[in-house]
Design a protein that fits this description.
Helix content is 26%, strand content 36%. It is an alpha+beta fold. The chain folds into 2 domains: 240 residues, Immunoglobulin-like (Sandwich); 130 residues, Tetratricopeptide repeat domain (Serine Threonine Protein Phosphatase 5, Tetratricopeptide repeat). α1 packs antiparallel against α2 and α2 packs parallel to α4. The radius of gyration is 24 Å and the shape is elongated.
């Protein structure tokens, strides 16, 4: 399994003191940046905060239903207040959380409306969440952001075990999904985090195809992170491929390896590679790494399908899709002109494809647009 990413997030939560000034503002919105739905970690933000996170345990099950990928989360936070009795608001802020991985900026979004089956409790106390507008930085904005919150008390010296459970929709479609769990927000608690365990499992036929190097255990069905006595400076992350794409890819691999592959098997495998690398909630680095791992064989399979069935428009179209994708930067804009992609789209259109004509028109239109800008004409791909 490819291990390369540096940061994973699913739904965590955020804590703030209701009646004191915040010293750390939450990240601002950034509507122009790539974004996917994901939550944030448990977070205080007070000058005199004396509450320590003694332990954090997160069980994250990735499931699929109705064509979408969901995170089903069960989290336990053991907290201990070493200062005076404290009242806090606990909850989830609605905003985009900026994440930088390598040279590629990303935005992790969170909206309370994406939550389902939400529960929060400590001992016998069940909390009832509500929506409130919270102003974190009056000098920047007096309007604030909407939060999904409830009230909690942290008595001095009394351990508090906060349990949180919820479902969250992460994405739709067949493309790979970035899965995050934000640990860095925990750096604002008093002292270090005593210990943290995050366990992600895939149970509906999909697979994890990448996990960050901090993972102590990683396979296609399970990824585990364990840390002790640390102040987090990095988050954890994995990439999940939905069941339809993963099973299609594996079936094609099996047929090809056994030497019994038909043109349809090659087409299916090539299409799964394209789904995995071009659809879904990934930004620059993720897409590029998946391309490097899977594109060579995807192109080989597409070319083999054309060789076996030269009159099959599906073979020509998936070849065009992959040829075109290799001509793009990680963020999606073309970096060079792929004449093989244009020719393959034209061939698919001539053979009766209902979708190739529009793809070819878009390709030609983008080439004209790029030529009209300061970028100038696209050079032919090598």
């Amino acid at each position: 399994m490819l291990s390369w990413v540096r940061k994973l997030t699913c739904l965590g939560l955020t804590v703030l003191m209701g009646y004191q000034a915040m010293v750390a503002t939450l990240p601002s919105r950034a509507d122009s940046a790539p974004m996917w739905e994901s939550p944030v970690g448990l977070k205080p933000g007070l000058v005199d905060n004396r509450v320590r996170m003694v332990a954090e345990t997160v069980d994250l099950r990735v499931i699929e239903r109705d064509g979408a990928v969901y995170a089903v989360v069960s989290a336990v936070f053991d907290l201990l207040n070493n200062g005076p009795d404290t009242k806090m608001k606990v909850g989830f802020p609605e905003y985009n959380y900026p994440v930088n991985v390598g040279e590629y900026p990303k935005q992790v979004g969170f909206s309370p409306s994406q939550l389902g089956n939400f529960r929060a409790w400590a001992g016998v106390t069940q909390y009832q969440p509500r929506r409130e507008r919270v102003v974190l930085d009056p000098s920047a904005s007096s309007w604030g952001d909407e939060w999904f919150v409830w009230d909690m008390a942290f008595p001095r010296g009394v351990p508090v075990r906060l349990n949180v459970g919820y479902d969250q929709k992460l994405s739709e479609g067949n493309g790979a999904v970035n899965l995050f769990y934000v640990l860095t927000s925990g750096a604002l608690w008093d002292g270090t985090i005593g210990e943290a365990t995050v366990i992600a499992t895939a149970r509906d036929g999909g697979a994890f195809v990448a996990a960050d190097p901090a993972a102590g255990e990683s396979s296609t069905s399970r990824v585990v992170w364990q840390m002790r006595d640390f102040e987090p400076t990095e988050d954890v992350r994995a990439v999940y491929v939905p069941a339809t794409t993963w099973q299609t890819l594996r079936a094609a691999e099996d047929a090809i390896t056994a030497g019994r592959a038909s043109a349809i098997d090659y087409i299916s495998g090539a299409r799964a590679v394209h789904w995995m690398t071009e659809d879904g909630t990934r930004a620059g680095e993720e897409r590029e790494m998946l391309r490097q791992q899977h594109y060579p064989r995807g192109l080989e399979w597409a070319r083999q399908a054309v060789e076996l069935e030269g009159e099959n428009w599906e073979a020509w179209e998936v070849l065009a899709d992959l040829e075109d994708a290799t001509a793009k930067y990680p963020k999606g804009m073309h970096k060079c002109w792929s004449q093989p992609a244009a020719d393959a789209y034209q061939q698919a259109a001539d053979l009766g494809s209902p979708t190739a004509p529009a793809k070819l028109a878009d390709l030609l239109s983008e080439r004209e647009w790029i030529a009209s800008t300061m970028l100038g004409p696209l050079e032919p791909c090598p």
